[in-house]
Design goal:
alpha+beta; ten-stranded mixed β-sheet; 7 helices; 10 strands
Length: 222
């Protein structure tokens, strides 16, 4: 069983803030994903999330594939990163259930994606565009911050093949490590991907700006 997240720091208030709503319609089917900004103040919610969102239970068809155990590690790592002020962290929510987390920061004038992880909200039912909706937040930050490139380290000993996925999005391989491949996306490729995402879904910024207790707002009954 995965250990609990570090709970030494007490965080009595909550910081889950609805940032934007994304909407995609494909073949007549509508997918709506809400994006929340999260921080260390959401520690109680994130601690519950990593205990409940068990990838092996939610994805039994994939659980026997080599490297699948890395999925749980990625979720735990992404949740822990949300506690650090150096990262901007966002939570994707579909039908009031969390389905993904992304963390990124500025490193050497680049926007570096530290972690991105998605999971189903029902057994064997992944949420379409969950990962792209989260990546869209990093692309928009990159565009407005003036950073030079977007960088990411693709895990090579996990499942699915993230390196291949990132190449298809416009990243290029830079350096191979033991279990990762360092990759980067040029400013031009980032602009092209933003335009491509506009064909997939529309984004409507939220104006409420209200702090929410995500443990009470969201549904963790997976």
């Amino acid at each position: 069983m995965i250990k609990k997240l570090n709970t030494a720091e007490k965080t009595p208030s909550f910081r889950g803030i609805l940032i934007t709503k994304t909407k995609n319609i494909t073949n007549g089917l509508k997918t709506e994903i809400d994006i929340y900004r999260i921080t260390a103040k959401d520690r109680p919610f994130l601690n519950n999330l990593v205990q409940i969102a068990d990838p092996a239970r939610l994805m039994p068809k994939d659980a026997q594939k080599p490297g699948f155990e890395r999925w749980k590690e990625m979720l735990f790592y992404a949740a822990e990163n949300a506690f650090s002020q150096e990262f901007r962290s966002y939570l994707a929510v579909f039908q009031n259930k969390p389905c993904g987390i992304i963390n990124f920061k500025t490193v050497n004038k680049n926007t570096h994606i530290e972690s991105i992880c998605t999971w189903p909200v029902k057994i064997n039912e992944k949420v379409k565009f969950a990962g792209k909706s989260l990546l869209n937040q990093a692309l928009k930050f990159h565009e407005t911050s003036g950073s030079e490139k977007i960088t990411i380290d693709a895990i090579t000993n996990g499942s699915p093949n993230l390196h291949e996925k990132y190449i298809n999005l416009g990243f290029e391989s830079v350096k191979r490590g033991t279990n990762t491949i360092s990759m980067e996306m040029s400013k031009k490729n980032a602009q092209n991907l933003l335009k491509k995402f506009e064909e997939y879904f529309t984004c409507t910024p939220s104006t409420c700006g209200e702090d929410k207790n995500l443990n009470k707002t969201l549904d963790l009954d997976f």
